[in-house]
Amino acid sequence: MNPEELEDLREENERLEAERARIARDGHHLNGAELHARLDRTWRRQPGLIGWLATVDHKEIGRRYIVTALIFLALGGVLSLIMRLQLARPDGHVVGAARYNELFTMHGSTMMFLFAVPIMEGVAVYIIPLMVGTRSTAFPRLNSYSYYMYLFGGLMLWVAFAFNIAPDIGWFAYTPLSGPQFSPGKRADIWAQMITFTEVSALAAAVVLVCTILKARAPGMTLSRMPLFAWAMLVVALMIIFAMPSIALCSGMLISDRLVGTQFYNHYEHGDALLWQHLFWFFGHPEVYIIFLPATGFVSVITEAFCRRPIFAYPVVVLAIISTGILAFGLWVHHMFATGLPRVGYSFYTAASMTVAIPTGLQIFCWLATMWDGRPRFQVPMLYVVGFIVTFVIGGLSGVIIAAVPLDLQLHDTYFIVAHFHYVLIGGAVFPLLGILTYWFPKITGRMMSETLGKIGFWILFLGFQLTFFPMHFAGLLGMPRRVYTYPAGMGLELPNLLSTIGAFAVATAVLLFVINGVVSYFRGALATDNPWDASSLEWATSSPPPSYNFEHIPVVASRTPLWDEKGDLPVVTGLRVDDKETLLTTVVAAIPDVREPVPEASIWPFVAACATGVFFVSSIFSPWAVPFGGIPTAIAMAAWFWPSSLKRTAEPVIA
Amino acid sequence: MMRGSGKAAASLPLLLCGCSIQHYQSTFGNAAEEARQFNTLFVIFLIVCAVMYAFVIAFLIGSIVRRRRASEANVFETGRHHATNPAMQTGLMVWGGVIGTGLIALAIASFFADRSMAQAAAHEKLSITVTANQWWWDFQYNSADVSKTLRTSNEIHLPVGVPVRIILHSNDVIHSFWVPSLAGKQDLIPGRENDISITPTKVGLYRGQCAEYCGTQHANMAFVVQVEPYADFIKWWEQGLAPARAPNAVLAKAGYQYVTTRECAMCHAIAGTTASATVGPDLTHFASNRSIAAGTLPMNQANIRRWVDDPQGVKPGTKMPKVPLAPNDLKAVVAYLETLK
């Protein structure tokens, strides 16, 4: 090294040292109101519309996710009411055949892709950083992009519905019905491209969650001290990463069959109609657990807080979550028992499908044992847990019934299946979701939801749900296939269908009540303290609602229930920058402080990139040329997004 | 074997007038060996599942009721929240064992039921090829003697007690062949051949329906199955082989003229006439069917007129186009179709 270079190096070193001296860090010299003011200046959203669109605050993105998904829930729910009106009596005339087919396609697609998965991601994006004690999610700009992609995909589908080009191929869009020959026009393309939007969005959210959970946990929060909801979301996010490529592949091949004349699903050209079903269900079955497992996390969170003790047999619950996540990928063929595949294979998938009942059954036991050993308080969230157990177990057991090939051959594609998956998805996921929204409402808004309205709503929902879906088991056994816009009189289907319709309106009333409760409480609810339920996890260690930077100091964790075990103040680590966005990363397993990581600034580019990608996706429905030409603005927007703003901000090692 | 025939005779007029018949399209129908096996297995599963559910609910109620007495719970308030109850640990292991045993028992029961159904498939004495179309059913009774091959649409007859192999094809999209009173369903997939075997055990009339969503008129893609004594079945087959008789009445003759030379003949076949297209259902014995347009309307003169006059109004989306017929032609066509017994 020549002296000139050495001199340069020395100068650079001096410059860096001088810069370091100017850096403000939190600690005992910087505390209280002054710390709050400085952190808030660094972390808060920039003013104006641009600031609103550019925000990368996980709490804002999470809130938007939740509100958007709830709007889609309401829209999907309205569709189901129209369908129930049509089916209230035999030979109904509320809607015609074609419209009815659009309704159930829109209902299923909206509920699966625009409500159930996104709301789980939204809740996780909001709460996970608080729960694991950090300032931000990993890749906050990707998180923002993920939300906009989801929003645009949902808007595209519903705008298409408003323009009467909604898909009418069912939410699983079997080829060749969805192919170019039997679905001319753009309806099927709208569906397939909506899938593209949501899979991009879900993959982005999954990467954000995996990295946040594995790398951003508070010091001391080892994997074995991680809250069960974080475990559930870790497994779910990994499942998304493994499942989504399969649907990306099959919907991509469908689009290419429709747009550029490939023949993947056309058997006349040596394609195969069944290929779609394999690829779709390889995604579609894990999808169900992608919706259900976060809900088991909710149940664990609520049960712990309201039974006043940690969940019984934590390792068993964690292993149950993981094994469910793995088994979920080995069951897809049970959706295809009637397609005439070899019988030996069917026996394997019967056994595999039944095996899922073991981890789920053990989890149920663990929750009940927690209640048994604890002292349950039956406030609204806990009521939803009880409703969950009573309802979900019925759905789980009917799942065991249809795992048997000889039984499934009768029940497959009947209303028995409709009953089964609504028991599993509403009982198993929506009940815990409404419980957890009630539970985290004070953290998100700073106000409590009304307990009275909540209890009334719970009972209407619980009873209305049973009235809607229990009779569907009988409708199925009495020979009613699903996805029929009408049925003849005289098959014994009149009574179950009428009951279902009445029940559906009760369910709608309860959901409306929940929304009213939420809106009224948002403005008029009792003010919430930091920890209104006296719960044990870190999200309750900060104010309600949390400040823009989440925690003044990063907390340190020494047990699974930190707020219960640390009487008084939680220990903290200090030394993160307050004049620039910075957070602490820890090691994956033991959560030992690893590096101080700069957090990206807010940026409008993820929004612009999402707009460009959206235009690209939508226009590629109409012309293959949209792919090369739509790629250009997308690439430009992404280049701007990833453009390094300054090289001086690098991750610094933690000084031990 | 003949036990059910009285009941079937009684249910026939009921079906015709569309009045209440329970179980003619029901998994509780129990009218074939396969449906009977389903019912047995279903009851076994139901009992095991009900017992498991009772355990869960009992535990749930127990833990709700117990809280009122428990002053020494292992909770945060007593400082023992990290303690676990040893009884619960034993309970967890027992519960795991109970679930495992129950599932293994059910899996074995399912496996044996599946295998015994597969064995039944080996002894079939009659084979029928089904070709599904949007939205109707084409049936062909196969025979070594080609002249005995019989084609029908939207209605089949089966001899009681005889194992039947039903071979499944599709001309367009995926459909599913399902007669719940007789057996489970099996998909008809374009480019593939599936099969299902049924051994009917009860004489009677049953309804089958497409069970895989197949487009606009999926709901109106049904068919009638008549299970009858073997002798009656053979008689029906023989009659079915006979070509359509030339009509005598003036009006029907005009209809015959129209049907065999104009639009109708472009899609439909009527044995014994020049109409021989196979795009739509075979009409040779059209009027002896119990329904029109794959279960959309009951068969009667008024409904034939409604259907021929405006198929798109009766079954929106059906592949049968509306043919603008002069009133006289319509009358004649209906009169002719009525003679196709």
Overview of the structural elements:
The complex is a heterodimer of chains A (656) and B (341). Chain A is mainly α and 656 residues long. Chain A has one domain (50-524): Up-down Bundle (Cytochrome C Oxidase, Chain A). Helices cover 65% and strands 3% of the residues of chain A. In chain A, the strands form 2 sheets. Chain A has a 3-stranded antiparallel β-sheet with strand order 3-4-5, with no helix packed on it. Chain A has a two-stranded antiparallel sheet with strand order 1-2. In chain A, a hairpin with a 6-residue loop joins strand 3 and strand 4. Chain B has 3 domains: 33-121; 124-241, Immunoglobulin-like (Sandwich); 250-339, Immunoglobulin-like (Sandwich). In chain B, a hairpin with a 2-residue loop joins strand 1 (126-133) and strand 2 (136-141). Chains A and B meet through helix 5, helix 9, helix 11, helix 12 and helix 13 of A and helix 2 and helix 3 of B.
The 3D shape of chain B can be described as elongated
**What is the name of the CATH architecture of chain A?**
Up-down Bundle
- What is the number of domains of chain B? 3
Number of continuous helical runs of chain B: 8
CATH topology of the largest domain in chain B: Immunoglobulin-like
Assign the CATH superfamily of chain A. Answer: Cytochrome c oxidase-like, subunit I domain
Computed structural class of chain B: alpha+beta
**What portion of the residues of chain B fall into strands of 2 or more residues?**
15-25%
> On the 0-100 scale, what is the average pLDDT of chain B?
89
Written as H for each helix and E for each strand, in order along the chain, the element string of chain A is HHHHHHHHHHHHHHHHHEHEEEHHE
In the CATH hierarchy, what is the class of chain A?
Mainly Alpha
Report the order of strands and helices of chain B: HHHEEEEEEEEEEHHEEHHH
